[in-house]
Every structure is written in structure tokens, then in C-alpha cells.
Design goal:
Layout: E1 8-13, H1 23-38, E2 42-44, E3 52-59, E4 62-69, E5 74-81, H2 86-105, H3 108-133, E6 137-139, H4 141-154
Parallel strand pairs: 1-3
Antiparallel strand pairs: 2-6, 3-4, 4-5
Length: 159
């Protein structure tokens, strides 16, 4: 992206969209929001300028992204289906649990192997998100990774 004002300055999560989660997932969500706000590239289609205030919602099995400019001008609502993310999110939750369990008892080599798998799933989810947004919002890879973390924080764990 060539324009320097296409970025998010504020990000909110609809409180009604947040499930009860573990302290680890809440921490991961806070870190993802902090990191996302520190550095991101975010350009809604046909938006001549930013920066942006974004609110994300989970509505049924869809992610709704509401975007306005910091001056209050609306830039649109964007929605993507989360159905393609189900398997990745389920696997991501399982490997995150294994990682947090391993920290207490496993060797450093075992922890590193689990963490590599976790990062691989995170990257896969990030690429899927970038693909899902490609016609509506342009994001860089790091922004996509942080958004994937937030999607996981919103998505209720499959039973």
C-alpha cells in the first residue's frame, strides 16, 4: 500500500461478541489489539483516505467489520463467512492448549515443536483471512495475523 494514512487508530470488539475464554486467550487478544494498533496496514476498497476506527462483531457464523474514518465519516460494513475458518480455528485452539500445557512439563525441544505448529496454523488462518478480504479490504500479512488472533478470540470454541 502506498498511502501512509490507511491504518487503524482504534479497534473495538462488540462486547456481546466476546465469549468467556481463558486468561491466556484474553491476554492474546489484548496483545493482538495492542500490536495491531502499533503497526498495521488497512485499506477498505475505494476508500480514498484514512485513518480508521474499526469495530468487529460476530454475527452468527460471520465476522462483521464496521469501518469509519477518525473524523466520523463512514467507510462501510464488511462481512465475511467464518465457515472456512472452522477447521483452522479448532486446530488452533487444540494446539494452543497443548502449548500452554507443554510449558509446564515438556522439554524445550517439545515446546518449540508445538510452537512451530501453532505458528503454522496461525499463518494458514492469516492467509485465508487475506484471501477472504481481498475484494473488500487490503491488509498486510502482520495485520492479517493479528486479525486472525481476534477472530479466534471471538469465535466460540467448537464442541
Amino acid at each position: 500500500m502506498s498511502d501512509t494514512d490507511h491504518y487503524i487508530t482504534e479497534l473495538y470488539i462488540d462486547p456481546g461478541s466476546l465469549p468467556v475464554t481463558s486468561p491466556e486467550m484474553e491476554h492474546e487478544r489484548r496483545v493482538a489489539i495492542f500490536d495491531l494498533l502499533e503497526e498495521n496496514e488497512f485499506k477498505p476498497a475505494e476508500s480514498p483516505s484514512g485513518p480508521y476506527v474499526v469495530t468487529i462483531f460476530l454475527v452468527d457464523d460471520r465476522l462483521k467489520i464496521n469501518v469509519i474514518r477518525t473524523n466520523g465519516a463512514p467507510r462501510g460494513d464488511y462481512t465475511i463467512s467464518l465457515k472456512p475458518f472452522r477447521r483452522i480455528i479448532k486446530d488452533y485452539f487444540m494446539i494452543c492448549e497443548a502449548y500452554h500445557d507443554a510449558i509446564r512439563t515438556a522439554t524445550s525441544a517439545q515446546i518449540e515443536a508445538i510452537d512451530m505448529g501453532r505458528r503454522g496454523l496461525h499463518n494458514e488462518g492469516s492467509r485465508l483471512l487475506t484471501d477472504s478480504l481481498r475484494n473488500t479490504i487490503e491488509v498486510d500479512f502482520n495485520t492479517s495475523r493479528r486479525f486472525f488472533t481476534l477472530i479466534c478470540a471471538l469465535y466460540r470454541r467448537p464442541k
